[in-house]
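Worked problem 6 (solution included).
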Amino acid sequence: MVTAGWVLILCYAAVILYFVIRGAGQTKEMDDYALGSVLFSPTAVGLSLAASITSAATFIINPGFVSLYGFSGVIAMGLALPLATLGSLILFTKGFRNFGTNVKALSMADWIRKMYDSRRFGIFFGFLSLLLITFIVLICVGLTKVLASTLNIREFYVLLGIVIFIFGYMMYGGANSMVYTNTIQAILMVIVAVMLLGSGYDHFSNGVTGFIEKLNTIDPKLTQLTNDSSFLFRDYFEIFVAPFIVGIAIVCQPHILTKSLLLDREEDVNRYLVVGITAQFLFFLVVIAGLYARISFPDLTVDGEALAMDGIVSAYVVKEFTVAIALIIVLGLISAGVSTLESLIQSLSTSITNDIIEPLLGKGIFTKDIFGLPAKLVYNRFVIVAMAIITVFLSWQQLVNPKLSVGIFAQNGVYAYFSAAFVPILMGMFFKKVPKEAPIWASIVAVTVHFTVYYGQIRVPFSEADGENPAVAAALAITSAVMVGFAIYAAKNKGIKLRSDNEKATASV
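Solution. The predicted structure is:
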């Protein structure tokens, strides 16, 4: 297993490097890095979208939650959140792409700055995007867990290798290479998703009732709709309402909505969405494999040692599959992490360079070439190096001292970001005559409420839920931001005014 794993990983790395080199040759300036200079098919971009949304959390971390807490986790992560996310993606994509293409937005913060003609608001979102480093940490931890068990190496060295390799090649390829690599990764992920979902077919030999009985024998709470032994799925608010609200806003992340800016033509959007949503829905269902893993490890131990939640899926793959099949699945699990990691590195480094460094230090620092390359591109590479150093430090802390799971750490940061982004994007696309004060105050309220509820562990009235669950904090933050934003909007405009379809398409004009 170890020898074959090394061979497969080295071959995988070689294929990735081939496409990176191919894409790097076509990356001449910062616009090429952010948006690409190659015309990609909507199918390829759709697969890239699905791969970007699907991270190590979907394939590695979330099934671990389901192993611990059962059906309640499946409802929250495999039903409520996906339905809201995919519906929101359909709602937001066309409007975001129309305006973003017209004004040539390079990032989410750039889109917001140009939509509201506010330099300070753009800088604010540039700094907010730093919260996404928590998501990068989640992926690196998930990849480290999988590769350490496959290659039989200490976790620290695996982590270091992952960061040096992926951050290293992302300094050069950008969007041009990312779509190629994401497409390959998405195809691998589809194969692995089918394998993981099909791996438990033996458990249904006595039908669904027999499957439920197996889980009941281990722990009756695994088959209940809610699970009071978890701080994530205690009641219906936590398993349905909070994930649904979060799912609506979760697409408001730079590595998701900005993917549509890679499309060349408006008529490509529908095929892009069909491909991306179909693949993504399959990926969301992988959490069900967490139930299979719990049947394989009823007491959540291996050889007498307790399994860490983030390592359950890796242990399940090694135990249940032959070496050949296990290696294919490991490759898919790696792809799930690497695809999103690439998108995050590309979008976050672009935002730091374009939305923090440039407005604060002035465009003058980018006027002269450095080492024969555009200065902005060189600065972007320095930013990626800094991100890599921070990632190693934070990831190692989460490996040696996690709070249940690195997923909680990541959710706290990422949820705060898209809670703040939701109202500005919603108002910008669908409402006219939006006063700047409305989205600005909505964003400030969202961040304030999210962190106050989370760190204060404030309880939701008439519910068991409290801020210890990041989804609860985010749901309250999003709701508060919507109320504040639209109250200001209505007060300024004496009512709510929707954009017509023609106004949405020509907003920038």
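Discussion: The longest helix spans residues 323-361.
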